[in-house]
Design brief:
Number of domains: 2
Mean pLDDT: 84
Number of strands: 16
CATH topology of the largest domain: Outer membrane phospholipase (ompla), Chain C
Number of helices: 4
Helix content: 10-25%
CATH architecture of the largest domain: Beta Barrel
Low-confidence stretches: 9-22, 35-46, 55-70
Strand order of the largest sheet: 1-2-3-4-5-8-9-10-11-12-13-16
Largest sheet: 12 strands, antiparallel, barrel
Length: about 350
């Protein structure tokens, strides 16, 4: 009887935790819909945001009797992560200096699944991010869209040094567009267009979960382009008409996170790749810097910037009325306040 009562109590507690969290998230979404209910794009993408919110619920209820009971806990596995929902807004009315009304909402799910036993380790990270922004006269546009899966299998070679096998996969969820001065969009990306898969053996220096560098001198990189129009245009370095591109070279993946104060953390992520088969001096670079500022137990202020230099990604630029394509430095910045739940 005691066991049955305990099981019922834990199930009721888990339900209440999920219901309370869902209630507040639903209230936030309701406010957004009430304010922007006449926006077509918001109606189209709201189900996606709701889906991501639903996927984040298991993380909110992670603390259960099973994880607390040492007799059932596999100590080799360490699972943790965070769910973050950010909003930002600016509004002007009769403002003499001028200004444009804007609103943005972003959801990021960041999970780690790490295994460590004897000389073996296996670090896995999954990041799902999606965001929308609205400006008066421009309508809704996405400001974040990413699926990132990282996996690093390691075997201890010496203190802090590992023999490794590294894999990384990246793509996005929805279509991306480039807009001209008339606010007309041209398709430039889609689901699995592009998608990148990088993998190969190597070695790593790992001081802790917050500082590691992996180098793979024999790394394959495959670019997938599962879209007919982008394939025909030869986007992202793919030969026109083909839907994939194979590269072979060297990769570097580095991660460093430091606590500047008790409530402020600074995170750095760097990815480099050089293709031995064609112009190895043209190095692909992806650098991300994030600052996490903790206001209370769940309220945070986050700021982030991402810089990408991709020799194969050509950006359309207008020059004297003529469209030209160049490889340019890509930048993305996000700043907002919201709620973050860690487990």
């Amino acid at each position: 009887m005691k066991g049955e009562k305990l099981t019922k109590f834990l199930k009721l507690r888990k339900f209440r935790n999920n219901y309370s969290i869902w209630f507040y998230l639903r209230r936030i979404v309701d406010l957004i819909v009430d304010k922007f209910s006449n926006r077509t794009l918001m109606k189209q993408t709201l189900p996606l945001l709701l889906l991501l919110l639903c996927l984040s619920l298991p993380g909110f209820s992670q603390t259960t009797a099973a994880t607390k009971d040492s007799t059932h806990k596999d100590t080799a596995w360490k699972i943790h992560g965070q769910n973050t929902f950010l909003i930002s807004q600016s509004s002007f009315s009769n403002w003499a200096a001028g200004g444009v009304n804007s609103f943005a909402a972003n959801l990021v799910l960041d999970y780690d699944f790490d295994y460590k036993k004897a000389d073996w380790s296996w670090d896995n990270k999954a990041i799902f991010g999606y965001g929308l922004s609205d400006q008066t006269g421009l309508g809704w546009r996405k400001n974040d869209d990413r699926i990132i899966l990282n996996s690093l299998l390691g075997y201890k070679a010496a203190k802090n040094w590992l023999y490794t096998f590294y894999a990384n996969f990246q793509t996005q969820l929805t279509n991306g567009y480039s807009y001209n001065s008339a606010n007309q969009g041209t398709l430039i990306s889609a689901l699995f267009a592009p998608a990148y898969l990088t993998f190969g053996p190597g070695f790593a220096y790992k001081q802790s979960d917050n500082f590691r560098i992996n180098i793979s001198p024999l790394a394959a990189r495959i670019t997938f382009l599962d879209n007919d129009s982008l394939s025909s245009a030869g986007a992202f370095g793919v030969t026109p008409g083909n839907k994939s591109l194979f590269e072979f070279g060297a990769s570097l993946d580095a991660y460093y996170k430091i606590n500047l104060t008790n409530n402020i953390a600074f995170e750095n992520i760097l990815k480099l790749y050089s293709n031995y088969l064609a112009q190895p001096q043209n190095i692909y670079m992806d650098y991300t810097a994030n600052i996490f500022m903790k206001v209370s137990k769940i309220v945070t202020v986050n700021a982030g910037v991402e810089l990408i230099s991709d020799p194969l990604a050509k950006i359309a630029v207008m020059n004297n009325g003529v469209t030209e394509y160049h490889s340019l430095l890509q930048t993305k910045q996000i700043f907002g306040a919201g709620v973050t739940y860690k487990f």
